[in-house]
Amino acid sequence: MQTPSSNAPSAYPSPSVAALQLQYVGNNVKDVQTPAAVIDAAVVRRNSADEVDVGFRAHVKTHKVACLFAMLEYLLKQVADDTNRQAPGRRGGFEAGKALLPSAVPRLAAVARILGEGTVGLFTDHPAHIKLLDEVDDAAWPGTIPVWVNIDVGDHREGVPPESGQLADVAYAVAASKRVRLAGVYTHLGTSYGSSSPDEALQYMARELEGLEKGAISFLKCTGATPTQDGQIPKVTLSLGATPTATAVQNIVDGTEGAQKYREMLDRIKQSFDLEIHAGVYPVMDMQQMAARARPTQSAVNPAQSLLSYSDLGFRLLVEVASTYSERTDKPEALVAAGSIALGREPCKSYPGWGVVTPWPEKSGSHYDPEGSKTGWIVGSISQEHGVLAWEGAKDSVRPLELGQKLMLWPNHACIAGANHGWYVVVDSDKADPNVVQDVWLRWRGW
User: Fold this and answer.
1) Which of 162, 205, 431, 444 could form a disulfide with 214 if both were Cys (CB 3.0 to 4.6 A apart)?
2) Per its UniProt record, what SUPFAM superfamilies does this chain match (predicted)?
């Protein structure tokens, strides 16, 4: 199959990292031109700590397209190479986290040639995908191509149900292929964002696991897989997790009776399958994750460590006040030069806004909390270029704003907000001055 190839660097040229670092590093973040995406590296380090004995894979789709961590620097920090760095539980190689497109095969093949055989895995949920890969010239993509079968566990985001005839057709195609091998089965339960408590998030996780287990068994039966000497079917990898269900796994390390059944489920499934968790936004969290309440409030391993508080939100947007309207409505309002093309348009179920104004430049202080005071500035409405801040709560406690004042916002969905920015200004709250820019991370562009 001969298809003209292209690559992101040529189609979407990026600015020089060195030039960006020269412009920003060492300056105070308040002097950065707005709107700007700001990452706190200290929060990222804390949120990325492992506590659960399951495999982990960073969400490559999130990095490449949607989430703010679409930059090489962080990807190398987050995903340790199993061979060179010997990081326990980390998965080497990559899954191309979108549905397989014929036009993308030449670019993926180029990556596979550079990284080596078996390093680039692809999603499939249709036998035509296997036929497409069988036609790829071996010189273009040497060796076998690992595929992950996308299972629909009930939310119809993508994939095929465990009992479907289409899954059987995929299984037959994989079994007959000389180019493709099964790497595992995969699902991403986007509806898990509807969680409102750790127990609900664990219920979503159980649904993912049960669906993947059924899908893997159905697939292997179609391929004629035979039991091993211990009576089990050959191990394949079950890969699951949106951020709510991925972080929910942290709840099973406590000693509660409710957590016990989920630990037993994991232990049972791990006897027959390898298990890995994948997710993308967990290193920074956001207002949606706060609303989902999926992870525990404190670490069971280190009770002094917070896991779900506003101090655990590591991504903010720096914005500037463009005007104020103290008498426009029954509540004070202000205009910031950051609308949907900076914040995104995804709502959050816990409050009627598009972002929350943080206490910054103070290290801590009062702010709007959907589960607390409900007093503070929120982004009450947005247009393309602008956001209108609305004061929630008593007027006599309003935090005054002035023209030109810089503010930091917590967006609803860090993935979508991050995708609107070409690079990320990095600060580190573990440093003596948490407002000094330490680095600039360049975002990968392109689809």
Assistant:
1) 162
2) PLP-binding barrel (SSF51419)
